[in-house]
Amino acid sequence: MNFHIKALSIATTVVIWYIVAVTIIAENFAPLKNALAAATGHHWVSKGVFALILFAVVYGACVFLLTDSRENPKPVYVVIGSAIAGGLAIFLFYVWHFFA
Amino acid sequence: MHIFVAQTEWACYSERVEVLLRLSSAIALERNFSLSTMPQILIGTHAFLGEVGALLFLWVLVELLNPSPERLRRARILAMCGTLFLALAWIVGGYYYVEFYGTIVKPVIKAGPMPWTHSIVIETKEHVFLFLPFLAFLASGLITTLRDELVTNDRLRIAIVLLSGLIVLIAFAMAGFGFMVTSGFRSALEAIAL
User: Fold this and answer.
1) Which chain A residue has its CA at the smallest distance from B95's CA?
2) What distance, in Å, lies between the first and last C-alpha atoms of chain A?
3) Cβ B131–A79 below 8 Å, yes or no?
4) How far is the CA of B125 from the CAs of A23, A61, B16, in angstroms?
5) A-chain residues within 8 Å CB-CB of B171?
6) I need a surface site. Which of A6, A16, A93, B15 has the fewest CB within 10 A?
């Protein structure tokens, strides 16, 4: 099975930042958290389901719009950097939220 | 002065223990909850799947260090299995989190002596964990697509090695976070018992 490498990397990066953004915004903006909870019954389940949908949509769009490259590792490094920065952002946000 | 502070602290502590006792008995009655049944099986399965997934990606990393067509064939299978294990860990852990954690464990931890294990640790764990299935799918997709090309394509091979290492680190960090949450729950139960 062959995947579009660049599209796969971009979709993963977008999903990581979506998770970071929706986590922080929903914690500070109750209507969003309530809407997420209403969508599937639990805000965390909705975040996961929407992440899957977003991944599929972004991957599909990138396959359609972008030319793949098997030489350039940069999109993979962007994913790695995003996962580290995004994970730290979520952790530091909850540390701040606990002490605030 | 010291006696007054000690008395105030004791009053706060007694109040918290009282809250914990009320919570634990109410929960036990309401849900017919037993610590040795369903939630424990789900936590154990979640941890097992997550840790095996992490070990499979560690194996992928090792196979990619000095690749040959045979090692890359193994890496493809291992990465697919690792992705499956992490996806299953997501589903099992998610079911436990939604069905049991929020109603039974969370209120006890929050009333106990280590409330930060919920407010910081589990909140971080539940969201950072969502990265894992996507990172695993990316690694698996790259190895499956590039196949034997990875013997000569060092730039992408090193990127996949680092990605696999990150998956291992995040997955074991999740296991460590799980330990901290369990400690928070245990300390709350000890406050009830002692």
Assistant:
1) A45
2) 49
3) no
4) 12, 30, 26
5) none
6) B15
DSSP class per residue in B38-83: HHHHHHHHHHHHHHHHHHHHHHHHHHHHS--HHHHHHHHHHHHHHH
- Tell me which amino acid residue B49 is: L
**Chain pair A-B, CB pairs under 8 angstroms:** 101
Statement: the pTM of the whole predicted model exceeds 0.90: no
pLDDT digits (tens, 9 = 90+) for B51-69: 999 999 999 999 999 999 9
Q: Is the pLDDT of residue B29 over 70?
A: no
In angstroms, the CA A4 to CA A64 distance is 10
User: Is residue B11 scored above 50 in pLDDT?
Assistant: yes
- The pLDDT of residue B24 is above 50: yes
The fold adopted by the segment(s) B2-193 is Four Helix Bundle (Hemerythrin (Met), subunit A) (1.20.120)
B162 → closest Cβ in A55, A80, A95: A80
**Count of domains for chain A:** 1
B8's enclosing H/E stretch is helix B2-31
| 8 Å CB contact of B131 and A87 | yes
Domain extent, residue A25, equals 5-99
Closest CB to B126 among A12, A44, A72: A44
All structural domains of chain B with their residue ranges = 2-193
**Residue B97 at interface with chain A, using a CB cutoff of 8 Å:** yes
Q: d(Cα B66, Cα B71) in Å, to the nearest integer? A: 8
What DSSP character marks residue B151? G
DSSP for B27-38 reads HHHHHT--TTSH
Q: Which of B94, B128, B146 sits opposite A90 (nearest CB)?
A: B128
